[in-house]
Structures are given as structure tokens and as C-alpha cells.
TrEMBL record:
It comes from the Bacteria. This is CHAT domain-containing protein. InterPro entries: CHAT_dom (IPR024983), EAD1 (IPR045430). Residues 5-85 form the Effector-associated domain. Residues 100-201 form the CHAT domain.
Length: 283
């Protein structure tokens, strides 16, 4: 996970983000610790600056640095192919649950829509239906880019199901602690978390330290809307430039085609680590 930049990426970064505020701002947005940002003093050229950053990534000083920096650069220059990275396949871990005695969620249909509408050459889906809390351990074996949780939510919790179908609540704080443990102790870091659950905005910020982007929803998130949104999200993701951009585009597309989901752009919440996130409910 400590792959350095290619020569083409160094040149593109040097042209777009010269040493000084432009480069420092990009690195801060990507979550690079300030002690690992080279000083621009002493006549350091832009190419030399970015080669020093690349060396720090290769040495393991900036965990997942290439990916994080290129994704931040792609958000600013989505049309620049040099910022798209060599590995375009996203690995998604889909975990779904619908406990008994709660409204039925068709996580199976949501999964089917994702598989049906996404490009298998760009989106690789692993899944666990009828999941209990322990199924989060799949993060350690699958090593997904995106964790997608399709479940009920509310009161600062999401709900899994045990072997008997009874609901199994997990607080946002406990979910965040699980992701922290996996990231810090096992190096299982996430590009994104998608909370396909009602009222999941209440826990989104708790997860942001352990994922580059968190997608959540404020208020109700009807099952038909969740199915349509998730399918569209992964359809547009490879060309959208970022998970957050894909979520906004998907929300707008679904809202315009399904009256039931008309408020989806307003209830969508997108949080990006390393960027200032105002109360972001707008598409």
C-alpha cells in the first residue's frame, strides 16, 4: 500500500500543484501530516518537491499516500487522467441485514441492482447477507476500498441481525472503534463508507477519521430509493472522479426519475476527510 508515484504522476502534480500554498493545501486535504510535507525553502523545484513526497510514501511515512493524494488531486482536476491512478477497480464489501420485527429491507435487491448496473471490470463486489456484527471482520480479509452497509438505522445506531433473526444494534461509536482497530492494528484502511440506512447522518462524522469519504442520509431512506441510489452510485463511480461526486450525481439522477425519492439530494450527506465539511445536505 506504499506504492510511490509514477513519473507521469510526479510531472502532473508538479504542474498543477507547485510548492507553496497549492501543494501544501492539497497534501493537507489528503490528510498528510505536516511533518511529512517537504519545505519549499532553498529553491526546491516543483518536480523535486513531489519526488520527495513520493519517497516519503515509499518509505511508509505517508500511509496509502499515493491513493489519497491522487484522489484529492482528482477532486480538483477530475478531467486530468494522470490523477486517476493505475488501479481503477474498486473493491466493495456489501453487508446487508434486515432483522425480524422491523420493516423488511430488500438488501438482496439492493445488492442485485449494484451488480446489475456496475461495470464488473471497475467494481468488484463482495457481500454478506443477513449479517451480524461479527461479519464486519470481513474487512480484514476482503480489504475493501468501500464498505457498504445496507441496514436499518436510528438513534445513533445501525442494526444487524443475529442467527435467530433478532435485531443486533451497534452504536456509531462502536462501529467507529471497530474501523479504528482494523485500520491502526491491521492496516485495513477504507476509501469510503456508504451508510444505506435511515438517519445514518447521526453517526457519519464518527466514522470520518477511518475513511476518506462517508456517505449517509438524514431522515428516512426508503427501500426503493436505497435500491435505486446504490445501483446508480456504483454505475457512475468510475467516471465521477470521487465517491462523494458519484453520490451527489446518483442522488440527483434518482430524484429526477422517482417522485418518491425527490428529496434525496437534500437528505444526502457527504463528508470528506481533510476537507471542511459544512452541514452538507445539498447535492
Amino acid at each position: 500500500m506504499n506504492e510511490p508515484f509514477t513519473d507521469a504522476e510526479v510531472i502532473a502534480l508538479a504542474q498543477a500543484f507547485p510548492p507553496g500554498p497549492a501543494a501544501s493545501g492539497l497534501l493537507a486535504e489528503a490528510g498528510v501530516p505536516s511533518q511529512h510535507i517537504p519545505t519549499a525553502l532553498g529553491g526546491l523545484t516543483s518536480n523535486d518537491f513531489w519526488r520527495l513526497v513520493s519517497e516519503a510514501i515509499k518509505a511508509g511515512l505517508i500511509e496509502n499516500g499515493r491513493r489519497r493524494i491522487l484522489e484529492a488531486a482528482a477532486r480538483r482536476f477530475p478531467a486530468n487522467p494522470a490523477f486517476q491512478g493505475k488501479e481503477r477497480t474498486r473493491r466493495v464489501l456489501f453487508i446487508g441485514s434486515s432483522p425480524d420485527w422491523m420493516d423488511v429491507l430488500r438488501a438482496d435487491r439492493e445488492l442485485r441492482e449494484i451488480v446489475r448496473r456496475s461495470d464488473p471490470a471497475r467494481i468488484e463486489v463482495h457481500y454478506r447477507p443477513a449479517a451480524d456484527v461479527s461479519d464486519l471482520q470481513m474487512i480484514l480479509t476482503v480489504r475493501p476500498d468501500i464498505l457498504h452497509l445496507a441496514c436499518h438505522g436510528g438513534e445513533g445506531r445501525i442494526y444487524f441481525e443475529d442467527a435467530a433473526g433478532r435485531r443486533q444494534p451497534l452504536s456509531g461509536a462502536d462501529l467507529a472503534e471497530t474501523l479504528r482497530l482494523y485500520a491502526e492494528e491491521a492496516g485495513a484502511t477504507l476509501r469510503g463508507v456508504v451508510l444505506a440506512a435511515c438517519h445514518s447522518a447521526a453517526i457519519a462524522e464518527l466514522l470520518l477519521p477511518y475513511a476518506d469519504t462517508v456517505i449517509a442520509h438524514a431522515g428516512d431512506f426508503y427501500d426503493d430509493c436505497a435500491i435505486a441510489f446504490s445501483g446508480e452510485l456504483y454505475r457512475v463511480l468510475p467516471t465521477a472522479g470521487s465517491l462523494g461526486a458519484a453520490a451527489r450525481i446518483a442522488a440527483r439522477h434518482v430524484a429526477s426519475s422517482r417522485p418518491l425519492c425527490g428529496d434525496l439530494p437534500q437528505t444526502l450527506v457527504v463528508l470528506d476527510r481533510g476537507r471542511q465539511n459544512p452541514d452538507e445536505n445539498a447535492a
